[in-house]
Amino acid sequence: MNPFALFEEDSDGPDEIPFITDTHRRRFVALLIDTSWSMAATQSNGVRAIDALNRELARWLPNVRAEGRGPLRDVEFLVITFGAGGVGVVSGNGTPSAEDDGAFVPASRLELPTLVAGGASPMVAAVDLALTLVEQRRQHVQAVHAQQTGGPRLILVSDGAPTDEEGNPTDDWRPLARRLEQWRSTRRMQLFAFGVPGVDDEVMRALATPSGYFPLDDLDLRKLLDLILVATSDHVDFERVRSQVYGGDLR
């Protein structure tokens, strides 16, 4: 799969349109990664899932930065993990700040620390934080920089079920699903949810809707990260991502 093929229609070179101008339209992409205890498990190849993820992220990030100088030049990333240490911002300066030089980073400058696995899976708190920060960033960019903003995009990756901070099962995802539906109707937000083996399908479908949920048959992290990059494109809808995941078998 070539994750960049979908970007070729947007062919302006990086020198033709700078990232920051008075009228340029910024887009916010929040990537939420499950780093709970299950990611510390050893896979069939003898490698821990979190170690494989860190290895693939090291391969993936230079591609993101390269696209950030071209097709993704208008994208700012917010990356949140939920697992070891609870919910944490790992992009930008690592603090939950929506101001300049805070948690949001242009795609061309995205860096991530080595991720650590462990703990519970506070998915609901992570999504809540993402929604709050995205809205604060939208208001900041419009007020301070007088720039237009596009509909935000959330990309959720999980291999389990949501819990509270202590690891107890929770139904807090039900009111969150209703809140997300309001966001979809009023802010043109899209949620792409990728579920790897072990994920709670009911929860992911409720949060992302059946159209926006993509269950994966295995923990192919390279494919997963490439799909995340595809889902980041401004020109991609759910069906085009579905065709990348399943080919002709549109589930």
UniProtKB/TrEMBL annotation:
SUPFAM superfamilies: vWA-like. Gene3D superfamilies: von Willebrand factor, type A domain. InterPro entries: VWF_A, vWFA_dom_sf. Residues 28-236 form the VWFA domain. This is VWFA domain-containing protein. It comes from Micromonospora noduli.
